[in-house]
Amino acid sequence: MSHTQRLAELGIVLPPAKAPAFAYVPVAVHGRLAWVSGQLPWVGDQLMATGKLGAEIDVERGREVARCCLLNGLAVLQAAIGSLDRVERVVKMTGFVASADGFLQQPAVVDGASSLLGDIFGEAGRHARSAVGVAELPRGVPVEIEFVAAISA
């Protein structure tokens, strides 16, 4: 089954690819690797959530936000390479989690995105990962996700 078919089977419709607001490209492709810039949890022109994990945001909501960030990343990747069926493997993902003092569950939050990669890409979605707690993220969001994918020529 293709990745596009798998998305449809899961009932996932990717959002429109969002243009960057600052001086960077959403995806940089070099050779057979595509680096997807950090994605925020945009739903249309609104942010899905703001706040910090362990304060205004709980782990389950954080997982949903991470999933939203990933879907935005897949949308810009698809726009850059033409089709997600070109993805051979997700190589690396980094999740940044805005964390209140004492919050230590960053990996559980980032699992929202990691699990979705597995659901969509199967074994090819298994990736190396970092889950990093930070003091603040752009626009006050609780999660930002970036990843690298190996793509076919």
Short description:
By secondary structure, the chain is an alpha+beta fold.
Give structural notes:
Helix content is 31%, strand content 28%. It has helices at residues 3-10, 59-81, 106-121; strands at 27-30, 33-39, 42-43, 46-47, 87-98, 128-134, 143-151. β1 and β2 form a beta hairpin. The chain starts with a helix and ends with a strand.
Features:
alpha+beta; 60s Ribosomal Protein L30, Chain: A; five-stranded mixed beta sheet; two-stranded antiparallel sheet; globular
How large a portion of the residues is in β-strands, by DSSP E? Answer: 25-35%
Biggest sheet overview? 5 strands, mixed
User: Helix content range of the residues, please?
Assistant: 25-40%
The fourth-level CATH homologous superfamily is: RutC-like
Specify the structural class.
alpha+beta
> What coarse outline follows from CA principal-axis ratios?
globular
How many helices? The count is 3
How do the helices and strands line up, and which of them pair or pack?
Elements (H helix, E strand, L loop, with lengths): L2 H8 L16 E4 L2 E7 L2 E2 L2 E2 L11 H23 L5 E12 L7 H16 L6 E7 L8 E9 L2
Parallel strand pairs: 5-6
Antiparallel strand pairs: 1-2, 2-7, 3-4, 5-7
